[in-house]
């Protein structure tokens, strides 16, 4: 199976759909170019699938579900074992594609894939993860037990910033639970996603169990409203995530929607200075700030505000270049539109009175003059009323604030509408315990800047960063992709037993 872009003479390679296990060239009239953000080279053309193609993909998944849900757990698990081996084998090749289409460094691209690979490895434990419960003799001769059963066709809508990790959060866990899946990758960088899909088919995922459609809002809306889709998983912006959650919920779907963030890092004066500054620079400027778990606001407590010049010095040392170049720390942002949006927000910050302590607006990279580069940028003297604080910038921008006490820092973070992640840097166990107890954010790091949990634990963003009560991986996602059936049973040794008519509710 080859779903990679197919080259047509004189035109960019065309990205394929995947329907019923086969690559399909779309008949659409609407195409979008996939562009290398460092060079503006056109890498491929991605189709915006037609309504008929979307319906065919969903119907293929629905037809495959009847057989797939009866496939033994052992068979599903062994496919995942083969799949993780293939992903590991082809990781360097996929990382090269990912870096070219998304812009992140090769090392970060490999990390993108590896964090997704961890979820695939966790899916190999489905035999333990999906077990039900059993209790013998809950009443006279009566046993009660629960079954975890797949729910049907599931859909996934993924963002541009993690074209490997986020799809790998979704379809492996969904299909290993016995469901079938329709994936809509980001139209901005679908090439590495399609390479991962190819490997899934090579690993033995049967036709129809995994399908891929490309496009924009029309595809999203179709997945949210189609009568055969039972669940929708989304990762992306708050605006789109809110729309997905409402629309899919109105049409009776299960929905999990992981959305925007404004992640704070609180720094106490007793923190390890060098470790903290390195962590803040890495979490703020890595991946050009295009992470939903990136640190975007630093809250210096007390005397730690004196560390600001050292943070600026570290940021100045970071190398801005194409992600494919050795030694690069900060690559380009995804598109010219993204760069324009970031620059407009930076201008707003200056207008509103924040101090532009480090200006990354006019950076030029030799040999990549057309790249979508924004250099590391730091604003100090930021207040909560400023637009740069209220808006997720999604670029290599750190905002710096100062408060007198830890209580003030906790109050500041808790008043922000987002609740994806937060970090505390300290050497005090008492302060850490107080912080983790009182902070109202789903994922907390103690001396860790990006507290994304390993797949054995659930991703637990909260408040304005999440809609739906179950996370996209870990134990919670097994609940999301299965339905619990409770069976209460009584068997008789003697078929002639007759207890007579009993009109009470008791089973005794």
TrEMBL record:
UniProt cross-references to CDD domains, sorted A to Z: ALDH_F6_MMSDH
UniProt-listed Enzyme Commission number(s): 1.2.1.27
Keyword line: NAD, Oxidoreductase
Enzyme class at the top of the EC tree: oxidoreductase
Protein name: methylmalonate-semialdehyde dehydrogenase (CoA acylating)
One of the record's GO molecular function terms: methylmalonate-semialdehyde dehydrogenase (acylating, NAD) activity
Membership in a protein family: Belongs to the aldehyde dehydrogenase family.
Coiled-coil spans in chain: none
Domain (Aldehyde dehydrogenase) ranges: 26-487
Keyword NAD: yes
InterPro entries to which the protein is assigned, alphabetical: Ald_DH/histidinol_DH, Ald_DH_C, Ald_DH_CS_CYS, Ald_DH_N, Aldehyde_DH_dom, MeMal-semiAld_DH
